[in-house]
Design goal:
CATH topology: outer membrane lipoprotein receptor (LolB), chain A
Shape: globular
Oligomer: single chain
Strand order of the largest sheet: 6-5-4-3-2-1-11-10-9-8-7
Strand content: 35-45%
CATH class: Mainly Beta
Distance between the termini: 73 Å
Structural class: alpha+beta
Largest sheet: 11 strands, antiparallel
Helix content: 10-25%
CATH architecture: Clam
Number of domains: 1
């Protein structure tokens, strides 16, 4: 067969070809890239949350309970059910704020780059968009037991640092479990996620009901 391919036949007793050297360079995947790839593979997300917000002027934290929903490539809906119902819908470079029976308010984030980066950071994380996160934050990943991880984001720009000093996200595999935001004012919000479904697929009619901007 070797002769048909134009290669000389090995002579009897010829030494075997040398084995690959043990010091061959192995390509090791960046752990942040690995985490981003895992998050990017999610078809959607559903989770319930409890947010505890510590505000300097208040004696006790504010507690909010609600649901967060995400549908790729970039639609994020955060609904507070109690104590005061409200919604925040983020699509591309705009957010819609709804509270009670008041008319929804649309805010164009394109005119406020720092605010846009801050508001969209959690969405970028769920999308596994490291490029966007790297543009605005310094990323630091710590691994825990099993598949547990903690990702810290610190703003790169002074404008962003005037809004938030750090964001810390922790999870297990592709399941996000906790988000802690330390604001420049000293206020801190600590959000715990439960009943997390990182494989949630939204049917077309459900997505139209949840993620379309309010009229």
């Amino acid at each position: 067969m070797l002769a048909l391919l134009g290669a000389p036949s090995p002579a009897q007793g010829d030494p075997k070809p040398p084995a690959a050297t043990a010091d061959a360079t192995e390509v090791v995947e960046d752990p942040i890239d690995a985490l981003m790839a895992r998050l990017a593979a999610m078809p959607g997300l559903y989770a319930r949350f409890t947010e505890s917000k510590t505000i300097g002027l208040l004696a006790i934290p504010l507690i909010n309970h609600g649901i967060v929903r995400y549908q790729p490539p970039g639609r994020l809906l955060r609904t507070i059910e109690k104590p005061h119902p409200s919604q925040v819908l983020l699509i591309k470079d705009a957010i819609w704020l709804s509270e009670g029976t008041a008319k929804p308010e649309r805010i164009d984030l394109g005119a406020h780059p720092a605010v846009q980066s801050f508001v969209g950071s959690f969405r970028s994380l769920l999308a596994g968009d490291r490029k966007t996160l790297d543009e605005h934050f310094e990323l630091s990943l710590r691994s825990g037991e099993g598949e547990h991880w903690t990702l810290e984001l610190r703003p790169r720009s002074e404008a962003m640092a005037k809004i938030v000093t750090s964001m810390t996200v922790s999870g297990n595999g592709e399941i996000v479990e906790r988000l802690v935001i330390e604001e420049a004012t000293g206020d801190v919000s600590d959000t715990r996620f439960v009943d997390v479904d990182p494989h949630r697929r939204y049917a077309e009619d459900e997505a139209a009901r949840l993620f379309l901007p309010p009229v």
